[in-house]
Amino acid sequence: MIAISVDSPADSENLRRSQGYTFPILSDAHEDVIRRWDLVHVHGRRDGADISRPAEFLIDSSGKVRWANLTEDFGVRARPKEALAAFDAMNKSSHSGE
Amino acid sequence: MKRSWNWAVWTGASLVFLGVVSYPLFFVRFPGLRDFPWANLPMIALGLVLLALGLVRAFRHPDLCRGKLFGSVLAVLALAFSGFFLYGIFIGARHVLPASHDAPRVGQTAPDFTLPDSQNHPVSLTGALNSPFTPESATGAEKGAAQAAGVVLIFYRGYW
After folding, report:
1. Helical H runs in B26-113?
2. Which chain B residue lies closest to A85 (C-alpha atoms)?
3. Per the structure, how many domains does chain B have?
4. Count of domains forming chain A
5. Which range of residues forms the domain containing residue B14?
6. In which domain, by residue range, is A25 found?
7. With a CB-CB cutoff of 8 Å, which residues 11-70 of chain B face chain A?
8. Mutation for B interface: A37, A69, A82, most B CBs within 10 A
9. Quick check: is B148 in a domain?
10. Size of interface A-B (CB pairs under 8 A)
11. What are the tens digits of pLDDT across the range B25-74?
12. How far apart are CA A62 and CA A29, in angstroms?
């Protein structure tokens, strides 16, 4: 699992420590990746800065997108169950016959 | 004859205020109650009803019950608060996100990238997809068999 936002590495490290996360949190300060993936939320932050809109993707080992969730409502986040179900479905198909 | 201070108006207004404020301060932590404000809408509705009842009493029996003035002021404030809350939850949060039509779709190849992690080490998507994932709890046999099965990528607004 990998998380990405415009936050600096220092801010992300603070988040990681305070929450005890073990997965990497990447810093896309100039929104290069966020823009390439068309996820920019212009002036999305209260101070007017551009940030990423919330989105989750499941990518298989060949680099293909298997599941994507772009919520309409930023109050509603993907439930872990949905991501896990997509992950299981992906693993089942890759273990049978590839 | 002593005129009552109209508890209904005060309780009603407090309930509306509490109903609105408790959402971001408390109920937002519970996903079921965050996605739809099940806890807050009843509080606000009840508050508004009490306010209305208190206000009606104040106007019908001003000799028994105070509140024509402060009741009206509180009612306006409560309505403003409720309106602001409803707008924020049902309209503001919905239409504010960009359409992201060009985001990678299911079936497409995800564009590769390399970004610094929180300790400034570069991490690439391809690297993450190719490196085996072994949870710290894996036994020796499991470690040998573990393969990268994919990456869940989470783009988020940021920690602020």
Report:
1. 31-35, 40-60, 68-86, 93-95
2. B152
3. 1
4. 1
5. 7-95
6. 3-95
7. 28, 31, 34-35
8. A37
9. no
10. 196
11. 888 888 778 778 889 999 999 999 999 999 999 999 888 888 889 999 99
12. 27
Place B145 in a pLDDT band, splitting at 50, 70 and 90.
very low
- Longest Cα separation, chain A: 52
Is residue B54 situated within a structural domain? yes
For residue A89, give the CATH number of its domain.
Answer: 3.40.30.10
Place of tokens 């519970």: B30
Q: What is the pTM of this model?
A: 0.61
Examine residue B158 and state whether it is found in any structural domain, yes or no. no
In a domain, B130, yes or no: no
CA distance A78 to A83: 7
Strands, sheet with B151-155, edge to edge from the N-terminal-most edge strand: A25-27, A2-5, B151-155, A55-59, A65-69
**A32, A39 Cβ separation under 8 angstroms:** no
Strands (E), A43-85: 51-52, 55-59, 65-69
Tell me what ipTM this predicted complex has. Answer: 0.83
- B79-137 pLDDT, tens digit per residue, is 999 999 998 888 766 556 788 888 999 999 999 999 999 999 999 999 888 876 555 44
